[in-house]
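anyone seen this seq b4? input:
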Amino acid sequence: MNHQHGGADDRLAVDSLNGQMRAAKTSVATRLRYVRHHHPEGPFTLATLAERAGVSKRALTSAESADGTNLTIETLVKVAHSLGMQRWAYFLDEEVFTQVNTELEIVKEVRRRGAQSVALRTASPSSPSAAPLSELSELVTGILLSAQAASDTLKGLPSPPGGPPP
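predicted toks r here
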C-alpha cells in the first residue's frame, strides 16, 4: 500500500514540476515578447534581436511560444546582455521584470527629451537592491516632471523687451 501511495505522490510531484516549467516558459515568452516591443531601442523583430544577441531566430521563436522548447540560460543571458540588461532574471522574476521595465521607461523618456545616451547598468556583477533603484527611478521621474513644468512655465511668460524669448 505504501508503494502505491508513493506512486501517487510521485505523480503529483511530476505534475507540479511540469506546471512550474510551463509557468516559467510562459513567463519567459511573455517577457521576451514584451521587451522586444517596448525596449527604448526597439521594437525589434525576432530576426533583428537574434542577430543582435548572437542566437538563432529559431531559438527566439521557440522561446516566445507558450510551449517553447528547452531554452538555455546562455540564450537568455545573451538576449538580456544584447539589450543592455545585466539582470537576466528579468525573464523569470516579477520584481526584476518590474524594476527593469521602469528603468527602460526612464531611458525612453530621457531619450525622447533629447539625451543621446543613457546607461543604467550596474558597475559590478551584483545587482543593486530594489530600494536604491526605486529611489533613483523616483528621482529621475521627479527631475523630468520638474523640467517639463519649468519649460511649460517659461513658455507662458512674455518676452522681455529687446531680449530673447524665455
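Residues 122-130 have pLDDT under 50 and may be disordered. The first helix runs from residue 2 to 38. kinda curious what u guys think
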